[in-house]
Write a structure and sequence with these properties.
The protein has 264 residues and is mainly alpha-helical. Helix content is 75%, strand content 0%.
Length: 264
Amino acid sequence: MSAPVSSLDMLGRQFDFWWALYRRTFRGNVVSSFFFPLFNALAMGVLLGGYVKVDPARLEGATSYLAFVVPGLLAGNAMMTGFGDASYPVVGALKWDRTYYAMQASPLRVRDIVNGHLGLMAFRFLVASSVFVLVLAPFGVFATWWGALGAVVVGVFVGLAFALPMYALSARLGEETWFTLLWRVGVMPLFLFSGAFFPLSNLSPPLSALAKLMPLWHGVDLARMLCLDTWDGPQALLHIGYLGALSVVFYLVSVRELERRLQH
């Protein structure tokens, strides 16, 4: 009897396919990853921020509105990238090009298929977050170099924390018709009211408490700690634990839902 093949080995067997797919599509992704942080920093941080004159204590230690808003933009960009990568591409692999069905006909297990696609997503989050930090570094918004590197890691972490729930939902429904609605009633409100553009203390206590239950706030606050060098160990562990637990739970749900879908 042959020895069981490890998940890592199965991931390696998919490398050529996912790398070829990435090479065909990366140019548009890199361009959008460059212009999104640049234009948002100029519009929100420089132009609008020029009118914001407040005590740094009210901006969670940021010396300017630009420095305050950049971590929120980074985490928000990671959230939107995660939504995009785990929505249409997953439905496409099930409904249009049926890539997942072709993979299922090989020795790959369902969890190997999920691992391979998530590996591509994680790499894209890494590239997008790295470009984001490189574009905004000349603006002087990062207090330390290690904080900037940590912000890149947070971008990957936040991207996965949002991609996994989306992956599970996309695998379960197998349809794209609800994506626009979810973007309008889910993604955009999260982006606007999770502490990216103003402190949550500006909200009423009930709304502030609700915002702190949302995963994006944990990513924004963690990124802000790193960017501004205001590290708080217990608070950071809370954020990491929350996002990590969310990712693990929905990874298991994603494997189960894709397995169920591929059986039909």
